[in-house]
Specification:
eight-stranded mixed sheet, Protocatechuate 4,5-dioxygenase, Chain B
């Protein structure tokens, strides 16, 4: 059976793509952020995943406000990046893994998740920037991918508890997949931030740090909050932490923290990074 070698959760702010394009990784403003990935690069070289399941939220590239699925799973042989208007360079296409995509889709439907299956799918910065951060250099990452979108954009959004159950179901699908592949699960977005309205610029560092810590010892901690409570705590865009929660829930049993990093400011966003692996 396939094996989940670990989980990585990370920010996906568009300005990161601009910083990469301008080679600003060692700039004083950016270096505390980019330097946080060095231990994760070393870890990825050690565990050598074959496939990345990427849980993120689409920003209008596939779905807009008139058609917004709660959950969508990619089932394509290839995923292309397209211009979203941020001015960041278009990266090469990503290879898909059709076998794992359908394994996840069939499992989710069996477990009564009503999903949208996408046999054609574009990927936006919430997918491409984390991949560029984890595999720097501008070339296609040496692994296959399965994109999974969660609606964190337009209410009603799924509850934290529902996203946690989604992650558990994805983890079950991976672990029952008849393959010797090594799988890493990514959850991208957040942490606390709000880009508009009266609370534009809002961040909540104490909550962010408590949430990060909870992913190790009490991963379902955030499920105590309703969707509106989470917006109050982390901002209208900070609810992207639902992607982190779903990714963490794919791993059953005890886990060990490989590395974490938390940095403010990154484009009015509290940026976070965590890598975890099964505890041996």
């Amino acid at each position: 059976m396939a094996k989940i070698v670990g989980c990585i959760t990370t920010t996906h702010v568009p300005s990161i793509g601009g910083a990469i394009a301008k080679n600003l990784q060692h700039d004083p403003y950016w270096s505390p952020f980019f330097d946080g990935f060095t231990p994760v690069h070393a870890w990825l070289k050690k565990v050598k995943p074959d496939v990345a399941v990427v849980i993120y939220n689409d920003h209008g590239l596939n779905f807009f406000l008139d058609k917004m699925p709660t959950f969508a799973v990619g089932a394509a042989a290839q995923y292309r990046h397209a211009d979203e208007g941020w001015g960041i360079p278009i990266v090469p296409p990503f290879k898909g893994d059709l076998d794992l995509s359908w394994q996840i889709i069939n499992t989710l439907v069996e477990k009564e998740f009503d999903i949208v299956t996408c046999q054609e799918m574009l990927v936006d910065h919430a997918f491409t920037i984390p991949m560029s951060l984890l595999y720097p250099g501008g070339e296609s990452p040496p692994l296959r991918t399965v994109p999974i979108c969660v609606n964190t954009v337009q209410f009603p959004i799924p509850s934290a508890r529902r996203c946690y159950k989604l992650g558990e179901a994805i983890g079950s699908a991976i672990e029952s997949w008849d393959s010797d592949a090594r799988v890493v699960v990514l959850g991208t977005g957040g942490l606390s931030h709000q880009l508009d309205g009266e609370r534009a610029g809002f961040m909540n560092k104490p909550f962010d740090l408590q949430f990060i810590d909870s992913l190790i010892s009490q991963p379902d901690w955030a499920t105590q909050y309703s969707s509106t409570e989470l917006v109050e705590l982390v901002g209208s865009q900070g609810v992207e932490l639902l992607n982190w929660l779903a990714a963490r829930a794919t791993m059953s049993g005890k886990v060990r923290k490989v590395h974490s990093n938390y940095h403010i400011p990154i484009s009015n966003t509290a940026s976070g990074l965590m890598a975890i692996e099964p505890a041996h």
